[in-house]
């Protein structure tokens, strides 16, 4: 049994340590609490195989899921935020931006460009909730506006995937709020030119993003159980002091009340967008 100086027990303990499961192999689903094999979840497009909970994915991962391989061309990557208000909460705004850039590998909360979906060329935009909650600052608004204008010029379908829980970015004040009108106006010109805008809402799509371009799609799709709205349900309950309906602000609630057109499982989203482009182009 116990042996001093590395007897059988010491050898058994070393063998146990060598066989320990590496960190990060398993993960827990936030939807049902199940313990899941991480690689299996990733192969399932970050959807829980037990309960179909759609987990958040990064903008880069979303591009890999939706667009044909190696077809995304990133536009305006050098646009960077300024600090017009000299905003400082717990840290100066420029420091916060640099920290987010280092953490996420993104320059800003939006990526825009062109790519192909099942061979169909589109202009594509996406907001990433990992970067200051996907909030819409001046760079996000400028990128999206330029993308819409390019889709208008080239007469291409436009697809924007929204994942923004932060709404307008408070660090930029009125400069951020102005982006709501700027992107919406560009979309109005695009629609007048006969363009097709497919808006995809993911969890969460809130605030100024939900109140502007995300709600202006000719066709609005949403992932299951995504939270979509302006103010959050807790804020609304505390303000109006009423009991909100079951499932308030979820995709399912919005579909029932006609705010969105269809709820689409992540595995079907690419095919659905391609079909919609074909249907509307005939």
TrEMBL record:
Coiled-coil residue windows: none
This protein's UniProt keywords: ATP-binding, Cytoplasm, Fatty acid biosynthesis, Fatty acid metabolism, Ligase, Lipid biosynthesis, Lipid metabolism, Metal-binding, Nucleotide-binding, Transferase, Zinc, Zinc-finger
Chief localization: cytoplasm
Pfam family membership, one: Zn_ribbon_ACC
Cofactor info, note text: Binds 1 zinc ion per subunit.
Zinc finger (C4-type) stretch: 29-51
Alphabetized InterPro entries for the sequence: AcCoA_carboxyl_beta, Acetyl_CoA_COase_Trfase_b_su, ClpP/crotonase-like_dom_sf, COA_CT_N, Znf-ACC
GO molecular function, one term: carboxyl- or carbamoyltransferase activity
Binding-site list for Zn(2+): 29, 32, 48, 51
Compartment(s): Cytoplasm
Residue ranges of every copy of the CoA carboxyltransferase N-terminal domain listed in the record: 25-282
EC number(s) reported in the record: 2.1.3.15
One GO BP: malonyl-CoA biosynthetic process
Catalytic activities: N(6)-carboxybiotinyl-L-lysyl-[protein] + acetyl-CoA = N(6)-biotinyl-L-lysyl-[protein] + malonyl-CoA
UniProt superkingdom: Bacteria
Cofactor: Zn(2+)
Pathway(s) served: Lipid metabolism; malonyl-CoA biosynthesis; malonyl-CoA from acetyl-CoA: step 1/1
Gene Ontology CC terms, in alphabetical order: acetyl-CoA carboxylase complex
Complex formation: Acetyl-CoA carboxylase is a heterohexamer composed of biotin carboxyl carrier protein (AccB), biotin carboxylase (AccC) and two subunits each of ACCase subunit alpha (AccA) and ACCase subunit beta (AccD).
Main function: Component of the acetyl coenzyme A carboxylase (ACC) complex. Biotin carboxylase (BC) catalyzes the carboxylation of biotin on its carrier protein (BCCP) and then the CO(2) group is transferred by the transcarboxylase to acetyl-CoA to form malonyl-CoA.
NCBIfam families found in the cross-reference section: accD
Family membership: Belongs to the AccD/PCCB family.
Protein name: Acetyl-coenzyme A carboxylase carboxyl transferase subunit beta
Lineage: Bacteria, Pseudomonadati, Planctomycetota, Planctomycetia, Isosphaerales
Gene that encodes the chain: accD
């Amino acid at each position: 049994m116990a042996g001093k100086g590395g007897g059988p027990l010491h050898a058994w303990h070393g063998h146990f340590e060598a066989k320990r499961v590496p960190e990060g192999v398993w993960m827990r689903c936030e939807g049902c609490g199940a313990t899941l094999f991480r690689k299996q979840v990733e192969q399932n497009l970050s959807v829980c195989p037990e309960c179909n909970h759609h987990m958040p994915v990064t903008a880069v991962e979303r591009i890999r899921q939706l667009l044909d391989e190696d077809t995304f061309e990133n536009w305006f990557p050098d646009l960077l935020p300024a600090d017009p208000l000299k905003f400082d909460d717990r840290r100066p705004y420029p420091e916060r931006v640099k920290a987010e850039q280092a953490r996420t590998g993104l320059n800003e909360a939006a990526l825009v460009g062109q790519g192909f979906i099942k061979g169909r060329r589109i202009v594509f935009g996406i907001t990433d909730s990992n970067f200051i909650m996907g909030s819409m600052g001046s760079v996000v608004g400028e990128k999206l506006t330029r993308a819409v204008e390019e889709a208008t010029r080239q007469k291409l379908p436009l697809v924007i995937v929204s994942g923004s829980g932060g709404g307008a970015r408070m660090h930029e004040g009125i400069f951020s709020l102005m982006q709501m009108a700027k992107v919406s106006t560009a979309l109005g010109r695009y629609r007048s030119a006969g363009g097709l805008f497919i808006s995809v809402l993911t969890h969460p799509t809130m605030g100024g993003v939900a109140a502007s371009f995300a709600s202006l799609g000719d066709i609005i799709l949403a992932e299951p159980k995504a939270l979509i709205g302006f103010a959050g349900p807790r804020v609304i309950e505390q303000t109006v002091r009423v009991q909100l309906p079951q499932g308030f602000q979820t995709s399912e609630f919005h579909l029932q009340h006609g705010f969105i057109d269809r709820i689409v499982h992540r595995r079907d989203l690419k095919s659905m967008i391609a079909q919609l482009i074909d249907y509307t182009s005939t």
